[in-house]
Amino acid sequence: MAEHHDTAPAELGAPMDYNEHEKTYDLFIALSKWGVIICVALMVAMAFGFFVGGFFSATILFILICVAAWFVL
């Protein structure tokens, strides 16, 4: 006899894997948070490099902002 598998949509009562949903949501939030942090750090470093001058100092500032965010968050 064939095995029974729930292939119906969730709206019709198929079981949900809530642990997997939570892990996916947590990953999405973490990637969104770090994406915003990196974009803001990049914009600050680019502005610093434009007004002060110097690619090396702007790169160091970008790295410092990212490391500071890692320790703060």
Automatic annotation (TrEMBL):
Transmembrane parts of this sequence: 27-48, 54-72
Source taxonomy: Bacteria, Pseudomonadati, Pseudomonadota, Alphaproteobacteria, Hyphomicrobiales
Name of the molecule in the record: Aa3-type cytochrome c oxidase subunit IV
Record-linked InterPro entries: Cyt-C_aa3_sf (IPR036596), Cyt_c_oxidase_su4_bac-aa3 (IPR012422)
Domain of life (superkingdom): Bacteria
Domain called Cytochrome c oxidase subunit IV bacterial aa3 type: residue spans: 4-50
Signal sequence annotation: none
Naturally occurring in which organism (per UniProt): Phyllobacterium myrsinacearum
Keyword vocabulary terms for this entry: Membrane, Transmembrane, Transmembrane helix
